[in-house]
Amino acid sequence: MRMENWDLYDENRQLLNETMTRGNEVPANRYHLVIHVCIINKQGQLLIQKRRDDKQGWPGKWDFSAGGSAVQGDTNRDAAERETYEELGIQLDLTNRRPHFTINFDDGYDDFFIVHQDINIEKLSFPTEEVQEVKWVTKYELLDMIKEGLFIPYRNSLIEFIFEMNIGLGTIRE
Fold it and tell me: Which residue numbers delimit the Nudix hydrolase domain (predicted)?
C-alpha cells in the first residue's frame, strides 16, 4: 500500500497548513476529508462496487460507487474524480459541482457527490487493485444487502436520503 498524506482541517472546515499520514491517529481537534460518489442511472439504480477481499477496511463488502480519502492537495472534487477513476476506470468531470451533502464524523468531513450517468458496466474491466466487481441496484435491493451483511452497514436513513436526493440539490421538492 502506498503512503498517503492527508490535509487537515479545523472544526470550521478551514484548511490548515498541517498534514498527517494515513494510518496514524487523527490529531485532536483536527479533521480530514473523505468523499463518496454515488452514480445513479436513468432507471434510478445505484452503481455499487464490491471491495476486494484483501482490502483494508470492509474487505469483500459492497459499497457506494466510489469513495476514499482526499490526499494532500486534493479538493473534494479532485478526490472524487481520482477515486472514481482509480476504482472504476470512469473519468468524471465535476468542474463547478458541489457535493449534494456532507456528513460530519468523528475524524472528518464526508462529502457525497450524486452523479447521473448511464454506464455500460460490461465495458468496465475487473478486478482492479481495489474492486472485485460492480452492479446496479435499486434502493430496496441495497437495503436488503445491508440487512444480509453484504453491504457496508450504513444507516438505512442514509440510503433513503441518497435515493431521495437523486432528484437534485436542496430540500424542496420540485
Answer: 30-159
Q: Which residue has the cell 478486478?
A: 127
- Tell me which DSSP letter residue 65 carries: S
For domain 34-165, is the CATH number 3.40.50.720? no
This prediction's pTM: 0.95
Q: Crossing angle for the helix pair 156-165 and 139-147, nearest 10 degrees?
A: 170
Question: By C-alpha distance, which of 60, 69, 43, 66 is closest to 124?
Answer: 66
How many other β-carbons are positioned within 10 Å of the β-carbon of residue 107?
A: 13
pLDDT tens for 111-164 read: 999 999 999 999 998 888 899 999 999 999 999 999 999 999 999 999 999 999
Beta-carbon count within 10 A of 5 CB: 13
For the chain, domain boundaries: 34-165
* Structural contact between residues 139 and 64, judged by C-beta atoms closer than 8 angstroms: no
**Which grid coordinates belong to 167?**
432528484
